[in-house]
Design goal:
The complex is a heterodimer of chains A (397) and B (96). Chain A is an alpha/beta fold and 397 residues long. Chain A is built from twelve helices and 15 strands. The chains are: A alpha/beta (397), B alpha+beta (96).
């Protein structure tokens, strides 16, 4: 199905294909990508849309992800709406250039189909790839299903290209669990997307008539000021993100929050997670609520800029917060999400006890029962006093 | 161009962009030199090897065909002294 034929009716689509339609509907003008499981279907489909003349864009085949993101920087510098996608080792191979893309303020949109990092070699889902790229200075968010992947891909362009933002943006979606699942979802037609997302108007670009130096060296006298400028811009992008999500909500009826709440009213115990496992956790929460347990769920959608205030409000009244990470910080405090959540809540005069559980590494299945079991284990820990920094849930031995 | 040490974070150009050329010239790499070349003119044959091999290039030709360093950009690497055909260049430590 071509992007032009997309309508507002529900269709069954593989999520990767839906993402590629979102990119086409956003009228991406420049794409450079290298295939890597489980992201391959997205760029493969975009490549065929370009080859078939369904999408008017430059598709640059490159020999590595390092080159993919480098080409994206170059193309974005010309003022083109630029997109790429990657996963795991590919994101790691991009690493040094990712910081440069954000420092140069190019609004590249990237999908990361989250996958475990080697070693051992694993093609399956967890969040270790993006957690290793936490400090790249991009806007970063997570989606929990295919519809959200479609929605946030289009919105990412609008956020990234806002003249007050101009920062690259990553939409994280769980590899295989989302990228390869066929889901019923609602696409938008081209006119609607065009009205929502006008063409990109760059504030800085390569122009032979007005030569400039991009990516210049910075002396110790100025590096700190450049970093502060980036920090403030990324923090302030929060307001723009909320505005774009609000506009999308009015347009589609699908509303998004930096911290999503599920059955949190009067909850004494909260589970917090990022990504697609939140839908699994919802099943567990329903069952625990049915059994009379005051358990609710928080899904952290926005990772950068970190939604400090929204999180503090969301945990109000809870006595126990169980943070489920999808990545391990070896030798550290446990999971990166847990340590950030704990830091964010530390200044509160009254805060819940926080326990960290690391789940679903390298594609390990996490069924609803696991969340019920984690809540039971955590309550026991509260009673007896935590015996360790964090729990690597389900590990044998 | 405003001196770097006076620019605030609010004044940083979008993406660290430089709209005017010449920022490298404004950066005086000679500031952190620990030694500098001194020519003994009586032994200099004015061949220009020092001028050719200087990586900066921070060696300037003077009237009469002799050479000297540009104190703003000479880093004191000593390549000129090592390559000098007659050995007329000596590296002298910077004074305290």
């Amino acid at each position: 199905m071509s992007a032009k034929a997309a309508s507002t009716k529900r269709v069954g689509l593989e999520v990767s294909i839906a993402v590629s339609h979102a990119v086409a509907l956003a009228r991406a003008e420049a794409i450079a990508a290298y295939p890597i499981t489980p992201q391959t279907h997205i760029v493969e489909h975009l490549s065929s849309m370009v080859a078939n003349g369904e999408l008017e864009a430059e598709f640059v085949n490159v020999e590595s992800e390092h080159s993919a993101i480098s080409a994206c920087i170059g193309m974005s510098a010309t003022g083109a709406r630029t997109y790429t996608a990657t996963s795991s080792q590919g994101l790691a191979l991009m690493h040094e250039i990712l910081f440069i893309a954000s420092a140069m303020r190019f609004p590249i949109v990237m999908t990361v189909a989250n996958r475990a990092l080697s070693g051992p070699l694993s093609i399956w889902n967890d969040h270790s790839d993006i957690m290793a790229a936490r400090d790249i200075g991009w806007i970063q968010l997570f989606v929990e299903n295919g519809q959200e992947a479609f929605d946030h891909t289009i919105m990412a362009f609008k956020i990234a290209e806002n003249p007050e933002v101009l920062l690259p943006t990553i939409v994280n979606l769980d590899g295989f669990i989302l990228s390869h699942v066929v889901e019923a979802l609602t696409l938008l037609d081209q006119d609607t997307v065009d009205r929502f997302l006008p063409p990109y108007v760059p504030r800085h670009q390569l122009d032979p008539k007005h030569p400039v130096t991009m990516g210049a060296f910075a002396m110790p006298e100025i590096y700190t000021e450049v970093k502060m400028n980036h920090q403030v811009t990324l923090t302030n992008s929060y307001a723009v993100i909320l505005k774009v999500w609000e506009e999308w909500g009015r347009l589609t009826g699908r509303h998004y929050q930096p911290v999503e709440r599920y059955r949190t009213e009067d909850a004494k115990v909260l589970i917090l997670i990022m990504g697609s496992l939140s839908e699994v956790a919802e099943i567990a929460v329903d069952e625990m609520r049915a059994a009379g347990m005051p358990v609710g769920l928080l899904t952290l959608r926005l990772w950068r800029p970190f939604p400090f205030e929204a999180l503090r409000e969301a945990v109000d009244g809870a006595e126990l917060l169980i943070v489920c990470d999808r990545a391990l910080s070896p030798g550290g405090p446990g999971g990166p999400v847990m340590s950030e959540v704990r830091s964010a809540l530390y200044p509160l005069p009254q805060r819940p006890q926080i326990l960290g559980y690391i789940v679903g590494l390298g594609g390990r299945d996490v069924p609803p029962e696991a969340f019920k079991d984690i809540v039971a284990q955590a309550l026991k820990e509260v009673e007896q006093g935590p015996s360790r920094e964090f729990t690597l849930y389900g590990v044998r031995g | 161009m405003k001196p770097l040490e006076q620019i605030t974070w609010q004044e940083i150009e979008l993406g660290g962009l430089l709209r005017e050329p010449g920022s490298a010239r404004a950066y005086r790499t000679g500031d952190w030199r620990s030694q500098h070349p001194v020519w003994t003119k009586s032994r200099c044959i004015r061949c220009g090897v020092c001028w050719t091999v200087c990586p900066e290039p921070a060696i300037v030709e003077e009237p009469g065909g002799y050479f000297d360093m540009d104190p703003n950009y000479c880093k004191g690497c000593g390549t000129c002294a090592r390559e000098c055909v007659t050995g007329c260049i000596t590296m002298v430590p910077e004074e305290e």
